[in-house]
């Protein structure tokens, strides 16, 4: 059984994962209207689906542990970006924010001696390490490319095969 504090905190994480999915969906839509960014578009759409899966995993866990998962109302995400580089900077910043939130949940689980939730959250800890690594890698590549259009072409091609899990 989850404490009320833990239920509330997990439901906040449901909101964060839903917002992540929406944000990456908006990035994908923006990417789709940019010329020549098919790979980037697929990356963002795939990333959005993964964040939705993260949200669903939390919803199921809350409900299975005797809580009630709240399906959150979402605010409109940012719809346009000044550059591809800026979009990926936002992605990295957001993933760091999600990692911090997961770490706070882990801390709460330990404080409450809720070892089942602590164990459940370890998947998210590992997932966030991978998410941050991938976002940093994309940012590093875009930094190296700068304004080089041929480099951007190669980045767009390569990102289709990058693991967004």
TrEMBL record:
Residues the entry annotates as binding Fe cation: 17, 51, 54, 95, 128
Keyword Ubl conjugation: no
GO MF entry, a single one: oxidoreductase activity
InterPro entries with a match to the protein in the record: Ferritin, Ferritin-like, Ferritin-like_diiron, Ferritin-like_SF, Ferritin_DPS_dom, Ferritin_prok
Source taxon at top rank: Bacteria
Subcellular location, record wording: Cytoplasm
EC number(s) recorded for this UniProt protein: 1.16.3.2
Coiled coil: none
Described function: May alleviate iron toxicity in the presence of oxygen. Iron-storage protein.
Stated family: Belongs to the ferritin family. Prokaryotic subfamily.
Name by which UniProt lists this protein: Ferritin
């Amino acid at each position: 059984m989850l404490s009320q504090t833990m239920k509330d905190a997990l439901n906040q994480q449901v909101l964060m994962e839903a917002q992540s999915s929406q944000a990456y969906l908006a990035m994908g839509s923006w990417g789709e209207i940019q010329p020549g960014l098919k790979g980037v578009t697929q990356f963002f759409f795939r990333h959005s689906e993964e964040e939705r899966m993260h949200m669903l995993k939390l919803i199921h866990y809350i409900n299975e542990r005797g809580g009630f998962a709240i399906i959150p109302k979402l605010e409109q995400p940012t719809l346009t970006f000044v550059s591809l580089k800026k979009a990926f900077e936002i992605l990295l910043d957001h993933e760091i924010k999600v990692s911090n939130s997961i770490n706070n949940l882990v801390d709460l689980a330990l404080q409450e001696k809720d070892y089942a939730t602590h164990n459940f959250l370890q998947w998210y800890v590992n997932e966030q390490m991978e998410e941050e690594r991938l976002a940093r890698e994309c940012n590093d590549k875009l930094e190296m490319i700068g304004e080089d259009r041929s480099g951007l072409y190669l980045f767009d091609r390569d990102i289709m095969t990058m693991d967004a899990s």
